[in-house]
Write a structure and sequence with these properties.
264 residues, 9 helices, 8-stranded mixed sheet, 33% helix, alpha/beta, single chain, 6-stranded mixed sheet, 23% strand
Length: 264
């Protein structure tokens, strides 16, 4: 029976310099030699993941938008589920009327639309994912599917904005992916759901999966996988929820966990 590894990107696969450390990259290549898929599982969209794949010469399945889109090694769509444009419009109208202190981004497949790129919070996200947004509005999204709305917030406002949106839109999947980012997806969309979906598609037993993550939107994935490891740099509140821990992203947590399990 096959085995499979899932990894979040920011704060997990990437170190604090935004790079894959040599030892972690070695782990990915050692897995490939054994035909064990290494799956990138991120809140990012495909445009934010593509530069990473190119820089490090990686060819692997991708879970994007925290599970709303799954691509195979060739970039072919295996699964996707989003909200309707009308639903996205209701969320954006609420944000505007409540004057919530955030910059929004709308994502659909490879599209990323923001109101303005002049906002410092948008600039920070562009630099982080090494991709550029397009200025526009909901109407500029092609088709009728929106995979994610990203709320780029100031850290001191994040919890307040999260509570406000969860109260008004309980039917959507809303999760923090960093100290400044809040992800809004269609109901039922989580990295955990995507892990289960890909394991079924690849006919790999769930118990033969390992997952790595560092934040709240990774928690369900870590609890769903056969073994879920929380990075040492994760928030303290999560460390009491997730029992398995590994070194932080600056000290090759992925490599050492796989080494201790004798997967590499």
């Amino acid at each position: 029976m096959g085995r499979i590894v899932f990894s979040d990107v920011d704060g997990t696969l990437l170190n604090s310099q935004g790079e894959i450390a040599p030892r972690t990259l070695q782990a990915i290549r050692l897995l490939a030699e054994q035909d064990i898929p290494f799956v990138i599982s991120s809140a990012r969209g495909p445009t934010g993941i593509a530069p990473l794949l190119k820089t490090y010469g990686l060819k692997c399945p991708v879970i994007a938008f925290s599970g709303a889109l799954i691509l195979d090694e060739e970039g072919k769509v295996l699964f996707h589920r989003g909200m309707k444009k009308q639903q996205a419009g209701e969320i954006l109208d609420f944000i505007r009327k409540k004057e919530l202190d955030l910059a929004w981004g709308i994502y659909a497949f490879s599209q990323w639309v923001v109101k303005t790129r002049q906002d410092q919070r948008v600039d920070a996200e562009e630099r982080n994912v090494r991709a550029l947004a397009t200025e526009g509005a909901l109407e500029d999204i092609k088709g009728d599917t929106v995979h994610k709305i990203l709320c780029m917030c100031n850290p001191e406002k994040l919890d307040e904005i999260e509570a406000c949106l969860k109260t008004r839109f309980p039917q959507f999947s809303i999760a923090k992916s960093s100290s400044t980012l809040l992800e809004i997806m269609q109901s039922g969309i989580t990295k955990a759901m995507a892990v289960e979906t890909l394991c079924v598609l690849r006919q790999i037993p769930l118990e033969n999966s390992i997952a790595f993550g560092d934040n709240y939107n990774d928690a369900e994935m870590l609890e769903t996988a056969g073994k879920g490891f929380l990075m040492g740099n994760a928030p303290e509140k999560l460390k009491s929820r997730i029992p398995l821990h590994t070194e932080d992203c600056d000290h090759d947590g992925i490599y050492w966990a796989l080494k201790r399990l004798e997967w590499i």
